[in-house]
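Re: the 432-residue chain
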Amino acid sequence: MKKNIFVFGLNDPNKAQMTNILNADDYVFHSLLAWEEVVEAETYDFGQLLDKARRQLNDFEGSIDGITTFWDFPSIELLALLCEEMNLPGPSAQAVVRCSHKYISRTEQQKVIPENIPGFQAVNPFDDAPLSKIELNYPFFLKPVKSYASFLSYYVAGPENFFDAITTIRENITRYGEPYNSFLSEAGIDAGGVDAFWCIAEELIGGKMCTVEGYSYNGEVSTFGLIDSHRFPGRTTFSRYQYPSTLPVPIRRRIDEITRKIIKYIGYDNGAFNIEFFYDKRTNRIWLLEINPRISQSHSDLFFKVDGAPNQKVIIELATGHAPELPHRQGDYKTAAKFYLREFRDGIVWQVPSRHTIQKIEDEFPGTIILPHVNAGDRLSDLHDQEPYSYRLGVVFMGAASQQQLLDNFRSCKELLGFSVRNIEKRNRSDC
């Protein structure tokens, strides 16, 4: 009998990707809440979403064999609460908080891997004189303790930057802060006075950036892939994710050891995760940037292209109480990447590729997937959930026999797509 798997915000691209897992015919995938409700909503009423998800599950007449997600807040938090209520495999709400609440996560990391984290402190943006409480030296990063996709994350070089950032944060932090506080209340978790209306300031860390993907099953922590995160020259903005990593084997082993140590310590179990790291070659230091209590759906197609199965296979097997089994290097390509199409100044989208043009390019470069994120006429500064320093026009997934071929193919693809933006000087973004 087929197993019913409920997936938060299951959209068409991810549903298509999940059909690429081995034995996909053994499952029926159901969307738990709509994608528009849990990924790109104007606002998130956590209690309302939780009640609606409960009703959907309670009204389902068949068996409920697992619940899973590949999205960030509020999906992973909803999943933790519902799995506990329904006695289904999944991470605890407390463990999810130890990953996703940036300040609580840093305090836990400090106890077991202090040499791998930067200096940090909690900052109340609504304090009458928040700058007077800052103990870190400039420059540093300032961001909410709970956010998404670098939303409200700022590079602070001095007092002027700080006050600009604080002003914007005060105006927008409730977007995620209010519903995350509702989650903490539902879960009965005490944030120690640092709720989701607070920020965290962190010393700068840097080097070659990468992300490890893994999972914990019945107390055993495993990793299954390391992805390099490339940035635009001179900027903090991502240009592409590329798999597999080109980092030396000894560095990969050290990252693996740190990963196992911290995941074990915080008690995160029966769930997947991804952890972002920096490797600073000059100092031979490895820095942990953040822990995400989920797979990255940005990497799913990369694993499929190189290994032969997407990382969704991991979360499906975990959701049904089984140890994940993944193929290795059985895909059609030696390397693969997710490329970002970005604009660094505000403007009006003037031209986007037609469906016919996209199809033609995908046919010319087999395996390529092109996903535009804008429409002609869009004002870039009006788009939701953008990082502070760039605007995302779309993404391109590609595979190739070598890195050089991969980069050459993307350059050709980008030129053929022909995105065009008429810039508006008034609201330019920073060069960070």
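The two ends are 53 Å apart (CA to CA).
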